[in-house]
Amino acid sequence: MPRRLAADVGPPTLADEATTSKEAMVKNVRTYTSRTKTGCMTCRRRRIKCDEAKPYCKRCVAGNRQCEGYAPQTNPTPALHMIIYTPATPSYPSTEPEKDSFQFFLAQSRTCFPAEFSRAVLQAAQIDHVFTHAIVSLGAAQQIYEYEDDPATRDRLGNLAMMQYGKALHLLQNPAHPCSTEILLLCCVLFACFESLRGCRRSAVVHIKSGLGLLRQSGGPEAKWSLVSWGTMTAIFTRLDNQIVEILGTSIHETVNESPTNKVYFPGPVTVKLPISALQISIDTHLNHLFHRQLRLALIVGGRVPTPEAPPTKEEISVSLGRQQALFKTEGLDTELLQIWQLMAQLYVKVEPGTGPEEAWDPFVKDFDTIVTLSDAYLTRERLQAKKRIFSFSIGVIPPLYTTATRCQDPHIRRRAVRLLAEYPRREVMWDSTVAAEVARKVMEIEEGSSGLASSSISDGPSEDKHARVRTVTAVLDDEGGGRFKFMQ
């Protein structure tokens, strides 16, 4: 055969490229095929290939050998063809700083959320890099907030957190990376908490508002929920919705830079009915209906048209709350918090903040005193942890203390509430205790200053001056750790 010269070798043809491409596709696939055992006995003993001709194989006849025939046929085993596929490398952090922040999430951050939610996030992180980046960013941000005061360490962790957060957002915006509604909802929660931890509460509101819109369009419990149940997701966003409505009220459009005439400006409660379910979820749901009822009344008073989906009546909420009272004796988790919010819900039913007169709060001095005492016990127990500040996703202790400090007219009780807010720094997603303490002090200054009460000379009871009461405090949050607050009398 003549040797092919180098000059005879032309450019690769389409057939050559196709062969190369096919070889690359099966590069990491190993194929196994079992040997046949149906040849004649002579060829099998000589370990050569038999043509299996009958009655004697042609190979034996051509070699002048005696063909010993074939073994009796049984049910033949089909040839076994196996393909072993090696999956892609799991989505885990690679560098040491990323691993440290991931481990922080495993050790501490995930305990802030419901167990089912944390399991779903960690399960998704095994196959989707979006969650790996989100987990690392949240772990780094929480570590900064709760433990770190050293500027160099805060800068290092802050850069890591922002880089990972940016990568997660970039993947979600990539058209080649499709995401289900369930994945997007999980990300909205993680992103809102991340923005809250770094003080960007306006951005946190945007993520929560997006998640609420997705949840309402998800199809409810009849939709396919593979990672986390619809009930758990609804409970999480009910709590977040409570915070938005309670803090921002009718001024939410100013925080998110939207027109107040937007039709999706204020949707109704997250769940329409009052379920009899887990106690803490039920408390959140009752509060959601109460807050949206107050919001609806405020919109009507302000000349705006609220959503047609009206929440339950005050009487229905009150009866439902009464049914839950007996469950407190059997509930052992965060007992003080649940008792605090039971009192708060009852106060909201009786007073309807923002719509009734401020004097309607005055008969409940004993309830405010109980709220502060329970809050003190809860915060004292939490202080045993070696944290400088605390991030929490729980139902929260900041709103009851803030309400006590701004509504209660007993100077001793309201100062105790402000002291707890200031001495136990914490963030409960949208609520910040330091900001709440500053706003409460301003309310006290307005009310007590005009009534002649000096901070060094505290009276023994509520002020008799009815003209200095602060009726509402409206907030416009920013991404700089604070916001603008208006005090209306």
From TrEMBL:
Lineage: superkingdom: Eukaryota
PANTHER family reported for this sequence: ASPERCRYPTIN BIOSYNTHESIS CLUSTER-SPECIFIC TRANSCRIPTION REGULATOR ATNN-RELATED (PTHR36206:SF12)
Pfam families linked to this entry: Fungal_trans_2, Zn_clus
Organism name: Aspergillus granulosus
Keyword Ubl conjugation found: no
InterPro entries in UniProt: Fun_TF, Transcr_Regulatory_Proteins, Zn2-C6_fun-type_DNA-bd_sf, Zn2Cys6_DnaBD
Protein name: Zn(2)-C6 fungal-type domain-containing protein
Keywords recorded for this protein, A-Z: DNA-binding, Metal-binding, Nucleus, Transcription, Transcription regulation, Zinc
CDD domains, per the entry: GAL4 (cd00067)
